[in-house]
Structure formats: C-alpha cells, structure tokens
Amino acid sequence: FFKIVAISVFHSTPILLMLFAHGESRRLNPSQLPICWWLLIKSACIFPKGKKLGWRRRQNKEETDDLKRAESMLQQADKLGCRQFVTPADVVSGNPKLNLAFVANLFNKYPALTKPENQDIDWTLLEGETREERTFRNWMNSLGVNPHVNHLYADLQDALVILQLYERIKVPVDWSKVNKPPYPKLGANMKKLENCNYAVELGKHPAKFSLVGIGGQDLNDGNQTLTLALVWQLMRSQSTAYFKSLPWVGLVQNEPAVDCSSMA
Ligand SMILES: *[C@@H]1O[C@H](CO)[C@@H](O)[C@H](O)[C@H]1NC(C)=O
C-alpha cells in the first residue's frame, strides 16, 4: 500500500505542478483542493493514519519510537524554519488539521518542483518554450499520444493529438470523420483544418468547454493563446478525472475545504 501511495504521489507531481504553476490553486473547485493536499499528507503522515485504517495495533514502545521519530523530523523542519503548527504528539496522533497546516506550510516554502534532471532531454533545444508550454507538452506525451509532441503549437495543427486527448476524457471521437496522415500533397492544409473544425465542435458540444471565439482556423494557424485555452481545459478535465479515480478519494470527501491563502 505504501508503495502505491508513493508511486501515485510521484506520478501526480506533474499535475500538482500544473495546478500550482498555473496560479490556479485558489480558483480550484474547493472539493479538489483537499485532494491535492491529501496526496501530500498521505505521503507525509501515512504512519499515524495507518492506525485509523486498521493497521496492526502498536505497542507502547513503538509509540515512543514514533514520538522520537516525529521529534527528529521536527528538528529537521526547524532547520528549514518550518517548525510550526505541530508537536510530535500531533504528528503521531495524526491530527488532520494541524498536520495539514504543517505540510501546507512546508510545501509553500519549499515546493521543490524544479525541473527534473532528465538525461534524455536536451533542455537547450527547448529554449524559448515557457514552463507552461512544457508542462502541457509533457502531460500530453505522458498520456502516450501519437505522434510525440515536440512543439506544442506546430504539432497540434492537424488536431490529431487533440482528438486523442478527447478520448482520454471520455469524449467519443468518430474517427471516420477524421483525416489521417499521410495527407495528400495538394490540399493537405484543408484536411488538417477539417480536423481542427471537428476538434472545436467536439469541445463545444460533448465536452462543454468554454470555446467562445475559437475556431478550427485558430488551431490550424497555431494561435498560441487560443490553442492554450483549449489545451488547458483538456488538461483540467483529465486531471480532475484522475483525482477522482484515486483509491483514497472516498476517504477525502468529508474533509473540510482548505483555503490555501490563510496558510501561506
Ligand atoms: C490569436 O487570436 C486572437 C483572438 O482572435 C487574436 O487577437 C490574436 O492576434 C491571434 N494571434 C495571432 C498570433 O494570430
């Protein structure tokens, strides 16, 4: 179970990054916010919570060990200037509000969401790409879209990737309406534009995105603002579905909504 939590937290980091990097944290649906924090809390406070989840009962000696461990954890937090809100006893007993405040404060001060040291990617090639664009691109590629997206705007001009993303959020795509490569030499752009028009149509109707003033032509032109407007809604929709699919979300639903601004 611990491993699953660790893996889930690891995999959701790009999504957390996206949520926070976008300055969206305060505008998130309040029911989503505790889920973000719970991912963090579950990774930080899994041991005390374990008791409530019906894990093996602890002996007195183990409780003393837990207190000692909590104290040394707090001594480390002190070095970071983050020893606030909790005592070792709060950590061990799993006081949700205080632990939440502690972890939120730690996260706010040290989000540690720097770019990964990935040997496979030549970051210098990506200069000129904003952090936001890179996040969107990585998100798409992490979902296994084909072809691989190397450039956010140019690689979406035939809308094939966007249509694949619709499928990930359970918007049905009628692939018989879609023009696929290789495109004919003559009129290739027309074929791509038709795909773009279809992508906007799906976004407006079944997906119910807000696409006022966005046409297929804008995607086909690679208009940055308007492409981002669509991609952002796709990503938000997919990540919301992802959070809902997490196994412990049922545990989270009764948690009070968290207002980050009061914790900063
Ligand atoms: C993108 O579309 C918007 C809205 O139609 C427009 O104002 C803007 O000039 C376009 N950008 C480019 C680069 O064409």
Question: What do these coordinates show?
Answer:
With 264 residues, this protein is mostly helical. Among the domains are: 62-111, Calponin-like domain (Actin-binding Protein, T-fimbrin, domain 1, Orthogonal Bundle), CATH 1.10.418.10; 130-247, Calponin-like domain (Actin-binding Protein, T-fimbrin, domain 1). Helix content is 56%, strand content 0%. The chain is built from 12 helices and no strands. The protein has helices at residues 2-21, 33-44, 46-52, 60-79, 88-93, 96-109, 131-142, 160-168, 188-204, 216-221, 224-245, 249-252. Helix 8 (160-168) packs parallel to helix 9 (188-204). The longest helix is centred in the last third of the chain and has 22 residues, at 224-245. It is elongated. The chain starts with a helix and ends in a 12-residue tail after the last helix. The structure holds 2-acetamido-2-deoxy-beta-D-glucopyranose (NAG). 2-acetamido-2-deoxy-beta-D-glucopyranose binds at residues 218, 223, 225-226. 2-acetamido-2-deoxy-beta-D-glucopyranose binds next to helix 11.
Briefly, what is this?
With 264 residues, this protein is mainly alpha-helical. The chain has helices at residues 2-21, 33-44, 46-52, 60-79, 88-93, 96-109, 131-142, 160-168, 188-204, 216-221, 224-245, 249-252. Among the domains are: 62-111, Orthogonal Bundle (Actin-binding Protein, T-fimbrin, domain 1), CATH 1.10.418.10; 130-247, Actin-binding Protein, T-fimbrin, domain 1.
